[in-house]
Amino acid sequence: MQVNVLMELKKEPKMLELLKYNSYWLKELNRNSTSFKKFKDEMKRKYHLRATDKISDAIDNIDIISNVLNALK
């Protein structure tokens, strides 16, 4: 595995956790370091770290708050 990939993995604990539970990524990253982008996208999808996930969570929270406020009226 290339050094820059290892450094990126050590920076983000979620990446290490994903590697622990999905060890096939170790083989993929060892063979082809260009698949790091795919790995990073997979990590963001799995742990809901994408911008769309954050927006969706914010909308859900707003809906919950508005429902609570409507129920209190």
Secondary-structure map with pairings?
Blueprint: H1 3-11, H2 13-21, H3 24-31, H4 36-46, H5 51-72
Structural write-up:
The protein has 73 residues and is mainly α. The chain has five helices and no strands. It has helices spanning 3-11, 13-21, 24-31, 36-46, 51-72. It is rod-shaped, with a radius of gyration of 18 Å. The mean pLDDT is 93.
Q: Quick summary of this structure?
A:
With 73 residues, the chain is mainly alpha-helical. It is built from 5 helices and no strands.
Q: Count of DSSP E strands?
A: 0
Specify the oligomeric state: single chain
The number of helices is 5
- Class computed from helices, strands and strand pairing: mainly alpha
Mean pLDDT: 93
- The 3D shape can be described as rod-shaped
Radius of gyration: 18 Å
Any low-confidence stretches, pLDDT <50, length ≥5? none
Question: H/E series, N to C?
Answer: HHHHH
Largest sheet: none
Helix coverage percent: over 70%
Q: First CA to last CA: what distance?
A: 60 Å
Strand content: under 5%
